[in-house]
Each structure stands twice: as C-alpha cells, then as structure tokens.
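Sequence in, structure out.
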Amino acid sequence: MTLHIANTDNVSDRGALELAGAGDVTTADIAGTTYLFVTGFLDNGVSVFAVEPGGTLVNVDNVTDDATLELAGAMRATTAVIAGTTYLFVTGRNDDGVSVFSVAADGTLTNVTNVTDGGALELDGASGITTVLVEDNTHLAVAGSLDNGVSMFSVGAGGTLTNVDNFPDGLAAPLDGATRIATSAIAGTNRIYMFVTSINDDAVSAFIVDPDGTLTYDGGASDDATLELDVAAAVTAAVIDGTTYLFVAGHGDDGVSVFSVDHEGALTNVDNVTDDDTLLLNSPIGLTTAVIGDATYLFGTTNFDMSLTVFAVAADGTLTNVTTISDNATLELDSAGDPTTAVVDGITYLFVPGQLDNGVSVFSLVDENVSAVGDVLWRHADGTVAFAAHELAGVPNNWEIPATGDFDGDGDGDILWRHVDGLVVTWEMKNGQYLTNHNIAFASTGWEIENTGDFDADGDSDVLWRHNEGAVVTWEMEDGEYVVNHNIAFASTGWEIQGLGDFDADGDSDIMWRHQEGAVVTWEMENGEYVQNHNIAFASAGWEIEGTGDFDADGDADILWRHQEGAVVTWEMENGNFLTNHSIGFASTSWEIEGAGDFNADGTGDILWRHAGGQVVTWEMDNGALLQTHNYGVVPNAWQIRGTGEFDLV
C-alpha cells in the first residue's frame, strides 16, 4: 500500500481571522459537519472553520481575547462532548488560564466558563491541554509550563470546571517545563494513562488517571545518550496490534524516541530516529498519529526545518520514513505547529498550523493502490497518476487529462494534459515510465479537447478540438510536437462528437457524431482532412454511445452502445457503413462502461467496466460476441479511470 498525500487547502491570516502565530489545531464532528479550531498565539484568539468535502476550509467564527476570556497567548486546544454538547477548551499561556466554549451546530462559540491560575493550581504558563474519559467521567488536564506542574479538572454539565488534583514538579515526577500531554488506554488493563513531557527535565512522565481525576505517578523516561528526549516537546500515543506505543519528540535532540508501554505502565525504548538530510527533524515541535487503511502513520512537524515528516509505524513500533514535505510559497508550514487529523466523507485529512506563516495547511491522506489491469490510466483524488502497478507522479488538480494517444509514434501511449488556463502538455511515456514532458501550445478556454486520433495515418496521434460555437479543428502532431492545425469543418451545437474510430479500415481515424434527436453520422477523414460524411443510422434517446473498438478484429472500428436500462449492443461497421448490430449482454445500472481497448492483446477490442462500489471488470470479446469476463478486484473510488492506452510497450 502507498500513502498518498495531497495539499487540499491553505488559509492565511487575514481580516477577522485569529491565525497570527497559529500553533495548535483540534477538531470536532457536530451533526455531520467537521469543524477545525485553530489557536492564534499572537492574535490572542481562536478561529473556527467548517471542513468541506475535499478538504477545504470555510471560516464560521472567530473569537479574540477580552477582559473575561483567558486567550492571551492562545496556546493549545482540545474538545469533548458532555451530555450531547461539544465543548472547546483553550489554554492562554500569557493569561495563565483556560477558557471553555460551547460549540453550536453551526460551529459558533459561546464562552461558558474561564479559570485562571491561583492557589494550588498549576496554570502559570498554561500550555498543553487534553481531555480524558475514565469510567464515563470526563476530565480536563492542563500543563503549566511556568508552574512546572499539571492541574486536573472534572468537566461538568454546561462545561463547568472543578479542580480535582494538582501535581507539581518535585513530587517524584519530573515536570519542570511541563508542556505537552497525551493519553491512552493500556491494552490488557482497564487503566487510562496520561503522559506529560517536560522541556527542562528532558523527560516524559507517566500517570495513572483515576476515575475521580486524581493522578498517580507511575514512572517514565529521561534523556540519555541513546534517547531523543532533550527538550522533550511533543508526545502522542497509538495502539498497534494490542500494544500501546508512545512517541516523544526531542526539540533539542532533533529526533523522536518510541516506547512500548506495558500493562504496568513501564516504558521500553524500541526505536530512535534523529535528524538528517532526508528526515528534516531539526527541532521537532508536534506529533500526531493516524490509521490510514490498515497502517499506522506518525506525523511530525518542525520549527526550524519548516516541514512535515511522515513515518510508517511497524507492529513492533519501529519507524520508517515515508515522505517529507517542506514549506513553500503555497504551504503554511513555516515553524509548523501541532498537527491533528480528522475523517471527512471517508477521507482522512491532516491539518498543520504554521506559526510564522500565520496560517494552516490541509492535506488528504489516502493509502490505496490501483487495479492491476493493464493499459488503464488512473488518477487519484490527490492528483497521483498511475496505471496497473506503476505510480507515475502527483499533479495538481488544476491540470486535467482530457485524452491519451501515441503522439510520437513509438508505440507507447502518452498522456495529454490541459491546464485550466489553457496550456496543453504531453507526458511522453517509455516502457511504462514517464520520460519527459512536451509543452505543446495554448488554446483559449472556448476550445475543448474532444479526443485524439491519427487523422493523417502517419502513426502519430493528433488532437481533435471543438469550439463552443461549433468549429472543429485538429492539431497535427509529429514526433511528440505540434506541427500545424487543420480547420476541418463546422457543425451546429445540436451535434456532439461521440467518439473516433477507423470505420472504413483505411488507416485514418474518422469522427463519429450524434445529433440530439438521435441521428448518427461519421466524418470520413483522409490525410488529415474531411472527405465526406456517412449517414449511419438512428437510435432512440434511451441509447447512449459508450465508445468504439474493433470488437470482431476485421480492421473496422465498431460502435459500442448501452441502453439506459442496461442492455449492451454493438453496431458492426464495414467500409464506413453500418452492417449489423450484435446484442452483447446486460449489466445493471450500477455498472458503467469506462472504455474499450485490447486488454489481452489478441487483436480484438474488449470492454472495460467499473461498478459504483469500485469493482473493475473487463468483458473479453471474440468475433463480435462476449467470450468471458475478467474480475480485477475493487479499487477505492478516490481513483478514477482517465483513459486507456499501451503505456508499457516493451
């Protein structure tokens, strides 16, 4: 399996947003909508965004500090659901306190309570914050980085906070500079553990959280020559195959240490990774984990490398670097802060704040591969392009694949791209690999690419265009480059181009048209020019043309039809004329025809199908009839078919 990471949105501080010094993010799902909460340390506030399908952000509320709130130096945030209401908890490092907000169904915030440091509380320099559920009791834990301790609160109805415990530095636990908190259930026990990092003690402490919210110190780990705990700045946990693993980032060591946690809470070091030119772990500051597919991943962010580093976590807790993403002019990763993940419409998204970029970046995370059926071009929702088992590259989604073709006559199918601004580019392919790209030309947005075909029988595919007012033009290609355009003819907009094929077996691709009232016509092409039209036949509006292919291996392209109720028929063509029709079979409307091609290299065109659930099937054809079906399994719907071609000719 391969993890696909694609940037889906970036939001910078502006107007009413509270993103200056964006340092932490957390999420909550309310009535089917996922909301993202971002703290702005320099703005002394919080911004709320609805996460739209596709991973885009829409701002719905912004709250800034005032005389009542504890948001000066808004640092960290977490959420919890109490008696059906979602609450947001935010630490104010400069206010030495915590503000609590109820979150409405539309994502707007209403302040319900505020707690400031005083007495026995450990809220001076309030930093790390998390909620923990123990036997149906919700508690809030807050780390005071200047008080060097942790305060525990029970969370009551209405979001009220009642202090139940305070654990200062010096009572066995090393909490000098307590800064981050993570919690986890421990497999094989009914215990909930809380882990707190201390930047001055270079350590992580483990506590048992009792049902009443009180803490019992239960050991931990301190930095040594092997571990990466110098200035321990971030912590997160995950359970893999029944074992709890703890991940701790050492800001001063430029690395991450991994520990297994046994049923008594004891930590055993299982792996350590440190910064190098590939990992980019200079001063890690944030960690989170997520399960994508059947794999667990660790995501780490850094201050100085301005990057996001991704690791796959093995069943034994060891880390393997998967990829690293560095800040650029588009992303908001400068001094990247604490990340988090959420699932929206079945897709996992990663949210990363940028403290110096004053913004937040969003990435989709998908772990899946394409079908092994050959000669099919796929594109993932994150932009990745692949065929069979070959992944080629990721391309931003403002580039579209309108067609494929052999533009340089070398026998390998190439990929035709068009940018939303009109630029046309080809990817030249060789033996199943991307070789180079060719910048072809530019066309205004009034022109649309309809298909590709060899209209002059020179062995190179040409590009067929149509203007929205009806003009038809081809771009003649030679050795992968644009040579000249041919003004073919004009057709009224009541006619649509439905496909291409060599219907008269003369070596030139011809153009197939269908009128909105049902008439089918072909334009016979010769040496790149229009010769004559052939009135083929008429089909009622319940029938749709799905493609063309030589389904009987006689050298003439035939026409593939499907009825709206599921019947499949071909029109056999001979010398440019309709000869007879063949009833091929029937498929329920949950199946769609995705294309035609000779997928088994027997000289006969076959039919490519895909089910609404993702299953991929081909119908093998022989002498114009269905011979057998081939099942290639299920491909997640984040992958879509974008064409067919001989991409791996060797």
